[in-house]
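For reproducibility, we list the full input for the PLZ complex.
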Amino acid sequence: MDVVETQQGGPGLAQVRRVRTEVPGPRSAELLARQRAALPAGVGSALPVFITAAGGGVVVDADGNSFIDFGSGIAVTTVGNAAPRVAERAAAQLHRFTHTCFLVNPYESYVEVCERLNRLAPVPGEKRTLLVNTGAEAVENAVKIARAATGRPGVVVFDHGYHGRTLLTMSMTAKNVPYKQGFGPFATDVHRAPMAYPYRWPGGPERCAEEAAAALVELIDRQVGAGNIAAVVVEPIQGEGGFVVSAPGFLPAVAEICAERGILLIADEVQTGIARTGAMFACEHEGVQPDLITTAKGLGGGLPIGAVTGRAELMDAVPAGGLGGTYSGNPVACEAALGVFDEIERGDLLRRAAEIERIMRPALAELAERHTFVGEVRGRGAMLAIEIVRGPDRTPDPARTAEISKRCHAGGLLTLTAGSYGNVLRFLPPLSIPDSLLTEGLAVLAAACG
Ligand code: PLZ
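The corresponding predicted structure, in tokenized form, follows.
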């Protein structure tokens, strides 16, 4: 046990699945008891095993169990946990200076992260980037900028959307329990449109994009009035909402609807961005060019950093002093982000994400063949999911979803659930996972499905 506690993470960690206790094991159970006495009940964990090291494709717990990682800390350690270039750059920065507050004294790494995002983001024309600490802060700032640039208050979001836990982003989030229950009153001027969710579209998948676009127009033109709307905020693939890949053609239609009405399109790429889907940004798969893009999660390789990248004239609509934050663009997090870009380039990780899909998709499709309760396989790159239903009537089955996930955990595979109905098993392996563990993880999943 004490050996485990001094273990180094990163790719040097033994790449094995190993379950040697119950899950959670005795040491984790002890720590969980301390957690319950010290933390509020509102903070829960998907898999309450206490982690002592992680890297490559595994996370190791305090009982010496080694789990295959199909979660990446919710799409954060995309380049790998304790990835070498991230850890080295962040550690070196810790010894130079830990903080100045960019509003007090600037430093080069902040500017360099912005330059990199400006170069990479599929936003048209000249670009600017603002750094913040979290995904919610990125979304919140994107809306502030959109309001300042358009002089309009309204925000349009979608069913099943997730945008964060702050007042505005919680108001923008669709699902009530557990995100919103008891936390109102909510922010005003947030309007919700149906998402083009092909598997659950009443008129069937073929008519999904067109009918969802028509519903959006109805909301904008009839119910709110285009002149009152600053922005439409959309996740190119919905994350917490269940890895909903919108019907092909829907995102370009949304972009056109926005452009025709002077409404800004904000792509929330907090979960999809930074190489996760096999492109730097998921928008690129549909050739969509949003006005503003939010990123976080994968950007810092585990250190807290978020960003808003957008058209220069919009970003510059807020005068000096209007944007900031004590810790925003912290120098250690900036170095980590530069390490992330390095890892992606040198490791050819966009290709790796596509390769992961090529390995995983056939195995997931086989599960759907074998079990009527696997209703759909969907996603892109290293962001894949299966939706669990009762049968051909597609009634969501959250109980079976939780049961499969629990069996995966007991078998040494870290999986996460998602979805408005809690019936989606989502897979977000780090791009550093070896093929052997990917295949082994899929076998554990297959066994858990019965
Ligand atoms: N936008 C698309 O996925 C965060 C939430 C974890 P923060 N998703 C994980 C939880 O239950 O708190 C997310 C996202 C999209 C915004 C956010 C918010 O990002 O960094 O959690 O604030």
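The radius of gyration is 21 Å. DSSP finds 14 helices and 17 strands in the chain. Both points were considered when choosing residues for closer inspection.
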